[in-house]
Amino acid sequence: MGEKMALILQLLLTSRKIGIKNEEIVNYLKEHGLKSHRKEVGELVHDMNDFFTLFLGYPLIHGKPKRGYVIENEYYEDGELQLLVDAILFNKDASAKEKEALLKKLLSFSSIYQKERLSMMPLLKTEQPFSLILNLTTILHAIDEHKNITFNYIDYAISNYHPVEITSKNGNGKTKEDYNVSPYRIYLDNNHYYLIGYFSKRKTNLSMYRIDRMRYVRRIGGVYVDIQDQYDLAGFITKRFHMFASGEEVQLTFSFKGVLLREVVSRFGHTIAVKKLKEDWYQASVDHVLMNDGLKMWFLMQGANVHVDEPITLKEEIEQDLKKALSLYQK
């Protein structure tokens, strides 16, 4: 019975016909070596809708006079599905094989028409020397069970004019290559996953590792050291993931050309105060801005279209960085 239900759903999702009649479903099941009849099809659809009503909150399959059975409402809204598909396609660390498997699962309840409506970017056939899904699964289980993990952590060196992976030898395990860590939390930043945990060589600080640089991740025994309550994890994340924030909040004032208005709003929000200066220049004031290297880099990237007025310390740092950069081109 389960196989028949799966085939009926498959037919409804993949057929380009608007409405599939009982006879067509009976014939489709027969093509797959399964006997059925009109009454059974009706009973199967009824049972399927009982499941979907519990699972989704509404029946998925509707019977229409003269048209047959149809699926009127997709499991995902188009926008929801597009968001999820893009999150998979643009992930930097998952392999092409892992992305294909995830997309297959994600799109399993989508009709052929919904799949065609999506804006699907070509899947680049990239491979990775590790499994992101396996790494994440192993770490998440270890966090849930309060188990330690061990792994090798990679760095890079230049060989034959190309970067190659090398294994870091700063570990604390059976060999210098083994890192034994008590994992606390996974965090996503700039499309890379990071692990925050306890590493015995840095007992007074939390440690952070990029998961795509971890190899041979596995759970191990030993005492799970849980000291995360001694730290402000939110503060740690802010400082480490928001470009090394100093923690100092300042009143930021800067001038910019009108061409940057959208970028300014995107970076600082709609609540900033902006006044017109001369020609196409504006001045913005932003309260409670966290000083960090990311803020400075943002201003540097805008080039001659922006000028920091206050705080003076940030202005002077940018001036020094610009002088250093210019000196490299004047040699």
General description of the model:
It is a single chain. The chain has about 325 residues and is α+β, with helices and mostly antiparallel strands. The chain is about 40% helix and about 25% strand. The protein has helices at about 1-15, 20-30, 40-55, 80-90, 95-105, 110-115, 130-145, 235-240, 260-270, 295-300, 310-330; strands at about 60-65, 70, 150-160, 160-165, 180-190, 190-200, 205-210, 215-220, 250-255, 275, 280-290, 305-310. Strands 3, 4, 5, 6, 7 and 8 form a six-stranded antiparallel beta sheet that branches. It has a four-stranded antiparallel beta sheet with strand order 10-11-9-12, covered by helices on one side. Strand 3 and strand 4 form a beta hairpin. It is extended, with a radius of gyration of 28 Å.
Tell me the number of structural domains.
4
Task: Note poorly predicted spans.
Answer: none
Biggest β-sheet: count, sense, barrel?
A: 6 strands, antiparallel
Taken as a percent bin, the fraction of beta residues is 25-35%
On the 0-100 scale, what is the average pLDDT?
90
Radius of gyration, taken over Cα atoms and rounded to an integer in Å = 28 Å
The rough form would be described as extended
Give the terminus-to-terminus CA distance.
Answer: 78 Å
